[in-house]
Amino acid sequence: MQQSKVVQLPLTPPKQKILVTQPYVPSLDKYMHYVEKAFDAKWLTNDGPLLQELTDKLKDYLGVKYLLLVSNGTAALQLAYKIKNLSGKNVISTPFTFPATTTALEWQNAKVTLSDIDPRSWNLDPSAVKQSLLTKKIDAIVPVNIFGMPCDMEAFDTLGKENNIPIIYDSAQSMLSKYKGKSVLQYGDIHCMSFHATKLFHTVEGGALVFNSKEEYERAKRLINFGIGDNGVVEEAGINAKMSELHAAMGLCILDDLPMLIENRERSVEQYKAALGNSVTFQSNEQDVYTPPMYMPVKFETEEALLTAKSELDNYGYSARRYFNPEKNKYIPPKSYSQLVISNKISSNIMCLPLMYGLPYKHIKMISNIVKGSLR
Ligand SMILES: *Cc1c(COP(=O)(O)O)cnc(C)c1O
């Protein structure tokens, strides 16, 4: 008889590696309940009942009027840029973000200008953007609330109004963030959200757009369905960026569990902060903000200190991740980076520690001790 591979494992298996994050999966029974509904109706995509239910529930939960579910966060960005007609236009964004923010701009043939970031919130700095506006005609601004931390949203609203240009948020990580007591979705013109499996709220793959304008919402709804209008007429060249019923089903399951997920990870973030003390610097904003517990980013004094901590963690089976390394964005000419003094100084010193649902305190304590130990 052939021996099972499992039996041949060494007697003391290596410790299971703790990854930087892990998707949350809801109860399979609950998911199957929704899948059954879709199977019974034989309605798997194209504005189906589950998608409509998720749309209504999210609108309620977030307090917004015009929300459109789409296939992923990158498609949401591409659609927002398309709707604001940014092809051939100059757009300012941040160097410290996931590549999709700016690659989607390039994809829409916009010209990307990067402005510097704030040293504490690590977000696009409105005063740096103001400087760029003096020297160049700019047609839109794309700030990002990185790691869910809101940027200075009021200042961007003011810049948008003064210069009569749209503010489009890459809100992939900030669906639940708050600025001055209000949802971040109340600021700016369009928000693009990601519901990728690694985000706090997810639909496996998915995303959403939130609009202020009903006309823009209706145009986007046509665009994600090949450009076909209500009357069946193709009104302009669209694309396929629809969310399926099976993806919406995942969203419905996770939306119910969301308060528990937030509470659980908030506790972990507090435990990290208490255990790490002032050995590292945390992301911050002096304004009244709420940052949902999406990631556990910390800043080291130097890149060398970061690399030491990272390799020590790795030795113990914990993987930490440097999310954004602007120099890796080769598609943007390197000379645009030379003026980004703050970004150049700090983006290589920021790393995310493991954070996921149900991470036991003993690991948080251990990770914090390894980080502190590496700094001695
Ligand atoms: C996740 C993410 C994206 C991309 O979203 P997808 O759903 O993976 O396409 C874009 N921008 C930021 C800041 C993100 O975190």
What does this structure look like?
With 376 residues, the protein is of the alpha/beta class. Helices cover 38% and strands 12% of the residues. The protein is built from eleven helices and 13 strands. The strands form four sheets. It has a four-stranded mixed sheet, sandwiched between helices. A three-stranded parallel sheet has the order 3-2-4, covered by helices on one side. Strands 7-6-11 form a three-stranded antiparallel sheet, with no helix packed on it. The longest helix is centred in the C-terminal third of the chain and has 32 residues. It starts with 27 loop residues before the first helix and ends with a helix. The N terminus is likely disordered. The site of pyridoxal-5'-phosphate has 14 residues, from helix 3 and helix 4.
Quick summary:
The chain is of the alpha/beta class and 376 residues long. It has helices at 28-41, 49-62, 73-83, 100-107, 126-135, 153-163, 214-223, 245-276, 303-315, 341-346, 361-374, and strands spanning 66-70, 90-93, 111-114, 140-142, 168-170, 178-179, 182-183, 190-194, 207-211, 281-282, 289-290, 296-299, 350-353.
State the main characteristics.
three-stranded parallel β-sheet, 11 helices, disordered N terminus, four-stranded mixed β-sheet, binds pyridoxal-5'-phosphate, globular, 12% strand
Q: Helices and strands in order, then pairings?
A:
Elements: H1 28-41, H2 49-62, E1 66-70, H3 73-83, E2 90-93, H4 100-107, E3 111-114, H5 126-135, E4 140-142, H6 153-163, E5 168-170, E6 178-179, E7 182-183, E8 190-194, E9 207-211, H7 214-223, H8 245-276, E10 281-282, E11 289-290, E12 296-299, H9 303-315, H10 341-346, E13 350-353, H11 361-374
Parallel strand pairs: 2-3, 2-4, 5-8
Antiparallel strand pairs: 1-9, 6-7, 6-11, 8-9, 10-12, 12-13
Helix pairs in contact: 1-8, 2-8, 3-4, 8-11, 9-11
The structure holds pyridoxal-5'-phosphate.
